[in-house]
Q: What sequence folds into this?
């Protein structure tokens, strides 16, 4: 999926400082819309690679950017933003770091020109980093937080909103402190929990790990993320993350207490309520297009040979049922995979019957 080729809202040129995953992806997306994207990076090889992939061109001393997007590690962000504000006195400067309050506080303490600064945060990413992992469609349909503060100008707000819209994102307006509390809940704490769970696998034997299924892969996928980057993120958002982890520790203590004597009065009720609360929490996660719609899942066995998955998709299309979501799970010991297809509940029985008639095996 590419970026629309309509006329860009964002004026040229735009300078992207930092050509990692986010910076290079922003450059690719804006360049596809015809924006003149300038690139800067302390690493000459990363800069050259991002330029080779089409994310923009290296900035020159004569370039005068209208907007500067700082996409460097969180611990460097405030200093680089301040430098760009000084270097380009007519430009608006934003950053895409995953924490906002500490950066704004550091800039204010340093006496930076906050009229031309407005932090932002695209809620998108991958486990892989660097310009080689960049994608022009990385932000399509994803929230892009604009961390408003009292000193920002209307021009700064307009330019950052235009960038978000041009890369296909959905602007969301939060103040910096509210943003940091939100990402602690939906991003930073899940990263810590997934990492801790994955760390427990080091004690597993090969025969135990051979039993791993989709549930374990789902809950540990993000544990492959960059430790150095996450150290910076957690350090910058420690209070908000700590509050949630303390509440989670209390929940774990209740579970441990119940498991210590499952026959004690109330122990089974405690465990049951933990799962019920989890069910309620999952239902609060926005689904497709930000809705809270519920779907029915059908699990289809797919032979591990070329063309089988494409055939499944084609036949579901011929039946006239839309796939609302999809998850694939590969069996490590068998020559097939499992395609978990999410559809509207009122179409599930029809789809199951039609697939069966076409020879597909469904898990019951």
A:
């Amino acid at each position: 999926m590419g970026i629309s080729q309509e006329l860009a809202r964002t004026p040229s040129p735009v300078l992207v400082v930092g050509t990692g995953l986010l910076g290079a992806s922003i450059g690719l997306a804006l360049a596809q819309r015809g924006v003149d994207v300038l690139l800067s990076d302390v690493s000459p090889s990363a800069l050259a690679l991002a330029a080779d992939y089409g994310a923009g061109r290296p900035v020159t001393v004569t370039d005068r950017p209208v907007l500067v997007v700082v996409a460097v590690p969180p611990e460097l962000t405030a200093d680089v933003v301040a430098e760009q504000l000084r270097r380009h006195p007519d430009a608006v400067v934003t950053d895409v770091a995953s924490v906002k309050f500490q950066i704004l506080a550091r800039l204010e303490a340093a006496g930076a020109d906050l009229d031309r600064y407005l932090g932002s945060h695209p809620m998108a990413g991958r486990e892989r980093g660097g310009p080689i992992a960049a994608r022009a469609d990385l932000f399509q349909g994803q929230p892009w937080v604009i961390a408003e503060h009292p000193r920002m100008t209307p021009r700064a707000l307009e330019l950052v909103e235009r960038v978000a819209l041009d890369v296909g994102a959905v602007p969301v307006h939060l103040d910096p402190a509210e943003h940091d509390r939100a990402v602690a809940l939906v991003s930073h704490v899940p990263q810590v929990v997934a990492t801790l769970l994955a760390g427990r696998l080091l004690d597993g034997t090969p025969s135990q790990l051979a039993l791993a299924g989709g549930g374990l892969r789902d809950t540990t996928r993000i544990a492959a993320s960059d430790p150095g980057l996450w150290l910076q993120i957690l350090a910058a958002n420690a209070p908000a993350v700590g509050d949630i982890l303390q509440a989670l520790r209390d929940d774990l203590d209740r579970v441990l207490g119940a498991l210590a004597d499952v026959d004690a009065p109330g122990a089974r009720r405690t465990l049951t309520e933990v799962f019920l609360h989890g069910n309620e929490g999952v239902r609060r996660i926005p689904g497709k297009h930000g809705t809270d719609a519920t779907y029915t899942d059908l699990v289809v066995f797919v032979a591990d040979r070329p063309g089988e998955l494409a055939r499944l998709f084609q036949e579901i299309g011929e039946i006239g049922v839309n796939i609302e979501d999809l998850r694939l799970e590969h069996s490590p010991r068998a020559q097939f995979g499992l395609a978990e297809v999410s559809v509207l509940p009122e179409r599930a029985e029809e789809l199951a019957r039609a697939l069966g008639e076409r020879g597909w095996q469904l898990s019951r």
